[in-house]
Design goal:
Layout lengths: L1 H15 L34 H6 L11 E18 L11 E4 L5 E11 L7 E16 L10 E16 L4 E15 L4 E3 L2 E15 L4 E8 L2 E14 L2 E2 L3 E7 L2 E8 L7 E10 L14 E13 L2 E10 L20 H10 L6 E13 L2 E17 L2 E18 H5 L9
Antiparallel strand pairs: 1-2, 1-3, 1-19, 3-4, 4-5, 5-6, 6-8, 7-10, 8-9, 9-13, 10-11, 10-12, 13-14, 14-15, 15-16, 16-17, 17-18, 18-19
Length: 418
């Protein structure tokens, strides 16, 4: 039994491990690479088009999904991150260097299933997922002068949520996610990939203001990870500090969304989301980042009942701090402020603009839907003391959804022909 568990864990990490983000908001992905929302800039708070997005944002939207739906999404993210360091960090053994990160691209998997309970006269839908939640990775091991500088963060979420149709117009939802995370770096010294675990709650509402307009809101709690015995800092001359823990939080997040499908006889869906992420209250990130606003906007046009075209745009603030703090995650780098600025350059949250597009095909096979999307994050650069970084990325994703609506929850006889 123990061997089976270890094998399953290893396979799960094989699917998710590597640098997961590059197009994230800070380090969090939300709906940017889910099958349908990914083609609409990640928009999903008021009227999501895939099950995965209900579990990355507003759990109240689960109430929109009927019957049994099982969806598997996969994607590839290819980032390009360059670091130009002119600082000399004698205790860390880092000297000036200019290099491109050799961290490879990432394969992502997002899996979700939903089940409604209308068969029991309960206006509720439950959802369960296995989702890539956050990540970032850079690797400068092959750069002369870097002294093996590298950093990697990955968060894998297992959310369980429920959405309830309270009235004809109002829906409410709640969600709890159990997460496992791995941190490697970014401090110079002796360290290894260290695992931590965390919990995160989420409450949401949707309200149909009119027959064509839906409003959405959610509040997501902060999530804390403690990576025990994560690093021994280099003190120069071959000496190292005692082993230290690293504390890292993902931010409390507020999301607002609106959608409207009044135009073109209901065939055109317009949707926009606003996110506010409180990184300034997070261990680790408050040393290098400020709070962040994110704006997402997407459109979906139904060419035919079974064919949908999607476009999206997202804007995320450059939330790098001008004046970095002395301690990062409870650890004080021995080279002082230049060392913290060097860490900032390894975690560049600097890219404001992203675009995406996609296509959705309903009933590609009877009861099976296909969604495809692709996008890119435009290059941006920033300077942190004597260190600077630039980043850009592109990604592609797809998803297959199986709908078991007929003959299941609604107890209708399954037809012999579709």
């Amino acid at each position: 039994m123990r061997k089976t568990f270890c094998l399953c864990t290893a396979l799960a990490w094989a699917c998710f491990a590597q640098s997961a983000s590059a197009q994230s908001f800070g380090v969090e992905l939300h709906g940017t690479v889910t099958p349908a929302a990914g083609g609409m800039g990640g928009v999903s708070i008021a009227q999501p088009q895939d099950v995965q997005s209900t579990l990355t944002g507003n759990p109240a939207t689960l109430s929109r999904f009927r019957g049994t739906q099982f969806s598997v999404g996969a994607g590839w993210v290819e980032p390009t991150i360059n670091l130009d360091n002119d600082a000399t960090l004698p205790l860390a053994g880092v000297s000036p260097f200019d290099a491109k990160s050799s961290q490879p691209g990432s394969s992502l998997v997002n899996i979700a299933v939903s089940q409604d309970f209308t068969a029991f006269d309960l206006p509720a839908t439950v959802g369960l997922g296995l989702l890539t939640g956050a990540g970032l990775g850079v690797n400068y091991l092959d750069a002369s002068g870097s002294n093996g500088s590298a950093a990697s963060l990955l968060v894998l979420n297992v959310p369980l949520g429920v959405g309830v149709q309270v009235t004809d117009r109002l829906a409410a939802g709640a969600q709890m996610a159990v997460s496992t995370s791995v941190l490697d770096g970014p401090f110079s010294g002796l360290g290894a990939a260290t695992t931590a675990y965390g919990l995160r709650g989420n409450l949401g509402l949707t309200y149909n203001a009119t027959d064509c307009t839906t409003l959405g809101f959610y509040w997501m709690t902060k999530q804390s990870f403690r990576y025990e015995d994560a690093v021994r800092l280099s003190l120069g001359g071959g000496a190292f500090s005692t082993v230290q823990d690293v504390q890292l939080d993902l931010p409390e997040t507020f999301g607002w969304g609106v959608s409207n499908n009044r135009l073109m006889d209901g065939r055109l869906l317009l949707a926009s989301d606003i996110l506010y992420k409180r990184y300034s209250e997070c261990d680790f990130f408050r040393a290098i980042w400020d709070d962040q606003f994110v704006f997402q906007s997407g459109v979906q046009y139904s060419v035919r009942p079974n064919l949908k075209l999607r476009l999206g745009y997202a804007y995320a603030e450059n939330n790098m701090r001008d004046a970095a703090a002395a301690a990062v995650g409870g650890v004080i780098p021995p080279d002082g402020l230049p060392a913290v600025q060097f860490i900032q350059a390894q975690f560049p949250s600097i890219n404001p603009h992203r675009i995406s597009g996609g296509v959705g095909v309903r009933d590609l096979l009877p009861g099976v839907d296909l969604d495809l999307n692709a996008g890119g994050m435009f290059r941006a650069a920033d300077t942190f003391g004597l260190s600077s970084a630039d980043a850009e990325s592109y990604w592609i994703a797809l998803g297959m959804t199986w709908r078991f609506e007929r003959g299941s929850c609604r107890r209708l006889p399954a037809p012999d022909r579709w």
